Automatic annotation (TrEMBL):
Residues 363-409 are annotated as: Disordered. The keyword Acyltransferase applies. It comes from Micromonospora globbae. InterPro entries: Acyl_transf_3_dom, Acyltransferase_3. Keywords: Acyltransferase, Membrane, Transferase, Transmembrane, Transmembrane helix. One of its GO terms (molecular function) is acyltransferase activity. Residues 22-344 form the Acyltransferase domain. This is Acyltransferase. Residues 399-409 have a biased composition (Basic and acidic residues). Coiled coil: none annotated. The chain crosses the membrane at residues 28-46, 58-81, 102-121, 141-161, 173-191, 261-280, 292-314, 326-347.
Length: 409
């Protein structure tokens, strides 16, 4: 196996490279898997053969959420800045996620009122506050905008990480490796373990419960810390991609249900770490092309809008639960893909991005120091030879003495 273990972020362990565009591109792939899963299970296509083919291709598409949880832990630890306050971290995460959630929550409530669906106040408030994933009752954890259950989990992860990060930074490498290895085993153990849970709550316990789903997040956390220290060992991106493809095909075709989630967690982690390694080293990566990076940037909004749009349209046309006949079904799937992508682009541009600027914490610390240093350098260039300000080096142009700083965003 080709090693990727000597990689360290530029500038040492304390200064990770924030920009990992390959991981942004991979976010779109995960979002597309989830979309394909819902396109199959929500019965857009009435033709049995075509429906069966879509269902077979995207049978494991639900695991795209697993990818998001692992990726979230990896990226947040990789990009964490020394001295960042808990409040600043929470404020940035809130600004990233909550405005989009609020918009979709309001639209989903309006759609429910339009169709005269009951909207219990307790359920609506629980969903609004992103507490629904903690409630095992039917009609609660998948409520309002159903996909927002994963945001409920993510908010729990975000709450915990600032408290855990100091311990992660001090943890011995063997302990971090133990977390990475243990998580697939824990996922595997959930299948016999669910027998301890009442039968009506077993799906919630294995698929939704934030404490259970957090193991995937901590897997990404441990891998990021190992890579940050230059202790990660894993394949390079081409081999990791091949291994993932083989795992996906095998899991979809021949592997029992209680095994595929464990195997895919390992396969997803190998792809994530290999893609990050490629970005840090400047190696070739198909996932950081400009179109894929843009798609990855809007993937969060796409994930939030797609089920609500599909459900609403099919109910309005009277095709909900029966599907569209003939080739209208596949055409509708493609149409939903494009429409949801367009709506996601609007949501990203006019809600997500401006709200992150408005609600996110003001840049302080190193970013402010860098800006002050740049300003000071510009003043020195403007007044060479002033008292107490050295002029340019002999033979140098006025711009030669300007300090150069890395991107501090």
């Amino acid at each position: 196996m080709t090693g990727a273990g000597t990689v360290a972020p530029p500038g040492g362990a304390g200064a990770p490279a924030d920009r990992l565009p390959s991981l942004t591109g991979l976010r779109w792939v995960a979002a597309l898997l989830v979309f394909g899963f819902h396109a199959a299970t929500m019965r857009i296509i009435a033709e049995p053969d075509v429906q069966g083919a879509v269902g077979k291709v995207f049978a494991l598409g639900l695991s795209g959420v697993q990818f998001f949880f692992i990726l979230s832990g990896f990226v947040l630890v990789w990009s964490a800045r020394p001295g960042q306050s808990r409040r600043a971290f929470w404020r940035r995460r809130f600004a990233k996620i909550y405005p989009n959630h609020l918009v979709l929550w309001a639209l989903a409530v309006l759609a429910a009122l339009w169709f005269a669906d009951p909207v219990p106040i307790g359920v609506a408030v629980e969903n609004l506050l992103l507490l629904q994933a903690w409630d095992p009752r039917s009609g609660h954890f998948y409520s309002i905008n159903t996909v927002s259950w994963s945001l409920s989990c993510e908010f729990f992860f975000y709450l915990c990480l600032p408290f855990a990060l100091p311990f992660v930074r001090r943890a011995r490498p063997w302990l971090l490796w133990a977390v990475v290895v243990a998580v697939p085993l824990v996922i595997l153990a959930l299948w016999p373990g669910q027998a301890l849970v009442p039968e009506e709550h077993r799906w919630w316990f294995t698929q939704v419960f934030p404490l259970v789903r957090s193991v995937e997040f901590w897997m990404g956390v441990a891998a990021a810390e190992l890579m940050r220290r230059g202790r990660w060992r894993g394949p390079r991106l081409p081999l990791a991609t091949v291994l993932f493809g083989l795992t996906w095909v095998a899991a979809a075709g021949w592997i029992r249900a209680e095994l595929w989630a464990a195997l895919l967690s390992a396969a997803y982690l190998l792809v994530i770490t290999a893609a990050a390694d490629a970005d840090v080293r400047g190696l070739r990566s198909p996932w950081r092309s400009r179109p894929l990076v843009w798609l990855g940037e809007v993937s969060f909004a796409f994930y939030l809008v797609h089920v609500l749009v599909i459900t609403t349209v099919l109910r309005l046309t009277g095709d909900w639960g029966v599907g569209l006949p003939g080739w209208w079904g596949p055409v509708a799937v493609l149409g939903f893909l494009l429409v949801n992508l367009g709506l996601a682009a609007l949501l990203h541009r006019y809600v997500e991005t401006p709200m992150m600027r408005l609600l996110g914490p003001r840049r302080t610390g190193r970013a402010d120091s860098a800006r002050r240093a740049v300003a000071a350098g510009a003043r020195r260039d403007a007044t060479p030879g002033a008292p107490g300000v050295p002029g340019p080096r002999p033979g140098a142009t006025p711009t030669d003495d300007r300090p150069v700083y890395a991107d501090t965003r």
